[in-house]
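#onboarding

Welcome to the new folks! Below is a worked example of what a typical request in this channel looks like: someone posts a single protein sequence, and someone else replies with the predicted structure as tokens. Don't worry about understanding the tokens yet, we'll cover that in week two.

Example request:
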Amino acid sequence: QVQLVESGGGLVQAGNSLRLSCVVSGLRFSAYAMGWFRQSPGKEREFVMAISRGGGNTVSGDSVKGRFTISRDSDKNAVYLQMNSLEPEDTAVYYCAAGGVPSTLARHWNYWGRGTQVTVSS
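Example response:
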């Protein structure tokens, strides 16, 4: 059974940082690209960042470029999202995803976690 479990969300003031983690089990981690999406109430799921299978290539959504970074640890079967200079607009549920390629489209991803809430106060 494939499981993606996110953690690290919470309430933070604008300008501060958070680090999200996603631990993966039930699949061969090194064979999958990993990504992060987010969704706010009433909005579509938005692409945040993705990283290739080997970790050599990353893709960023326009709204987080220069503020967020993504990394992966094959020893821990984990992917991380470091979020700096957080803004109230970053408030959302953040989802971890696994798929064949680091696509910006949610429909291209095969497996999803249940999400972790990030709330940024002004």
